[in-house]
Amino acid sequence: MAVAPALKQTEIGPIPADWDVPQICDLKPFVTSGSRGWARYYAARGAAFVRITNLSRSCIYPDLTDLRFVNVPEGNSEAVRTQLKDGDVLISITADIGIIGYVTGEVPKPAYINQHIALLRFDRERVCPQYVAYFLASEGPQGLFRFLTDSGAKAGMNLTTVQQVRLALPRTGREQDAIAQALSDTDALIASLERLLAKKRDIKQGAMQELLTGKRRLPGFSGPWGTRSLRSCLLATPDYGINAPAVFPSGDLPAYLRITDIDDEGRYVSANRVAVNHPHATDYFLSANEIVFARTGASVGKSYLYDSKDGALVFAGFLIRARIDRHKLDPKFFAEYTRTSPYWDWVRVMSMRSGQPGINGREFAALELYLPPTIEEQQAIAAILSDMDTDISTLEQKLEKATLLKSGMMQELLIGRIRLK
């Protein structure tokens, strides 16, 4: 890559001197939108029917995992008008305005769209449609679409407005193709990482369901599993957190752990870390081998096992703390158990007994656990699952880096700040 040698100021900002800024209409595309009334053609199988829910702001390629299908009468003029072809650019024009799609051979044909999506079909001798799709998905045009949405365009964009959008366009098809290919390669990398990550998560989920319930035993371990209450594996009665004033982090104040700071995998993921200021905060510091549960609301049952790398944490009032006796129950084994189907089945039953989601400390303590006969087997199971978590975390980091790389490439390549050789 090389830095662009010269820039010129245009309606959409500085771009290379040898680029143009045409409106979409200047490129003479075929422009239309889908038809109304497609619901009467819905069928269990048939032609693909692409909706806004099949489009994503993170990727221009449609998500085909939740396709609807239609059976359209032969010769239907609306079907002929709205039938998709490879290279078509799609834009959502109602509700969530400005989501971009690009039709490739991956979309089964015939395929159709409804009235909530605009279709742009370009002459490939004039422009690379894949480049246009990437450009429309970039920050500049997306800012315009956000403005149209925020300004109260409840009815959405019309086709005239769509055609007035300006593009930063290299004059040569070769450069357009090269930029589109570079971004497409990055999307392919992201997609492969997402598939591998989903596979790893499925494998771990399967291992959890088998290892944490005794359906599969590790080599070297034998003897029957038994049932014990969580209470019998604790050092103290479960206690509740504090409702305390939170402030922005300063000095040595500990962070305030809230339900929203815990993700579905039981990790502390606060992107907006706040501190807690309370005269008795030290009584609520979390320590090693301590786990907290969400006791009320939509997140009831969600858990977090304290990890010292998360720093000093004081847990909030909507959380319950359980102090685990590590000689009777391996904390990591138990933390993994709180993400299995048997645990969540128990949460659903217990939390709805009063008609409103909620489980108190006494009820959490009464949770019945099905455990191996030795602590060593618990630890061996936890170690295997921890290794799987490490693999998953590594892939998540790679995916995050690839996503950031793509975002940076779009910002640089699509306005010509960096030129491809």
Q: Could you write a compact summary of the structure shown?
A:
It contains nine helices and 24 strands. Strand 2 and strand 3 form a beta hairpin.
Would you spell out the secondary-structure blueprint of this structure?
Elements: E1 2-3, E2 7-10, E3 13-16, E4 19-20, E5 30-33, E6 42-43, E7 47-50, E8 68-70, H1 77-82, E9 89-92, E10 100-102, E11 111-113, E12 117-121, H2 129-136, H3 139-150, H4 159-163, E13 169-170, H5 173-211, E14 226-229, E15 239-240, E16 246-247, E17 255-257, E18 275-276, E19 290-294, E20 303-305, E21 313-315, E22 319-323, H6 331-337, H7 341-351, H8 361-365, E23 368-371, H9 375-413, E24 418-419
Parallel strand pairs: 7-11, 17-21
Antiparallel strand pairs: 1-24, 2-3, 4-13, 5-12, 6-8, 7-8, 9-10, 9-12, 14-23, 15-22, 16-18, 19-20, 19-22
Report on the architecture of this protein:
The chain is an alpha+beta fold and about 425 residues long. Helices cover about 30% and strands about 20% of the residues. It is built from nine helices and 24 strands. The protein has helices at about 75-80, 130-135, 140-150, 160-165, 175-210, 330-335, 340-350, 360-365, 375-415, and strands at about 1-5, 5-10, 15, 20, 30-35, 40-45, 45-50, 70, 90, 100, 110-115, 115-120, 170, 225-230, 240, 245, 255, 275, 290-295, 305, 315, 320-325, 370, 420. The chain has a four-stranded antiparallel β-sheet. It has a four-stranded mixed β-sheet with strand order 6-8-7-11, with no helix packed on it. Strand 19 (about 290-295) and strand 20 (about 305) form a beta hairpin. Helix 5 packs antiparallel against helix 9. It starts with a strand and ends with a strand. The mean pLDDT is about 90.
